[in-house]
Amino acid sequence: MKWKETLVDLIAYCYVALFVYAAISKLLDYEKFVKSINLQPFDDRWTPLLVWGLPTIELAAAGLLMFSATRVYGFLLSLVLMVSFTIYIKLVLSNYYGSVPCACGGIIRKMDWQEHLWFNLYFVFIGLAGLILMWSNRKSSRETKDLINAVG
């Protein structure tokens, strides 16, 4: 169905915008990003991996989401990222780590932890919806092809 494809495209491009914005804002304000990563409750030995790895993975997810052939992998990677970030935020909110500053970039940094949790949950929800719509669209597409082949 065309509306499902359009909705999947819209969801994918929302993720692309989010991840490209987040990655670029981290890299453009690299020194501030490094400082905020060092304030996280991780050993500082992880800093080089995190400051280069997070933007790289975000950009990779955005790239995978741009093309229909790789979109399923993009949604899966995006969901892994968003669920991981969401679990981390939930741990921060439960005071598991004590007081922790946000290491996000750009305007997302302006959110408090509760707003950030809702923001992430929204993206987890639409990511799951995108995957479900893709799979249901593929299934109905296969069924249509099977019906055409059976009739033809």
Automatic annotation (TrEMBL):
InterPro entries: Methylamine_util_MauE. It is found in: Membrane. GO terms for cellular component: membrane. Residues 5-132 form the Methylamine utilisation protein MauE domain. GO terms for biological process: methylamine metabolic process. It is a multi-pass membrane protein. Keywords: Membrane, Transmembrane, Transmembrane helix. The chain crosses the membrane at residues 7-28, 48-67, 74-97, 117-135. It comes from the Bacteria. Pfam families: MauE. This is Methylamine utilisation protein MauE. It comes from Chitinophaga filiformis.
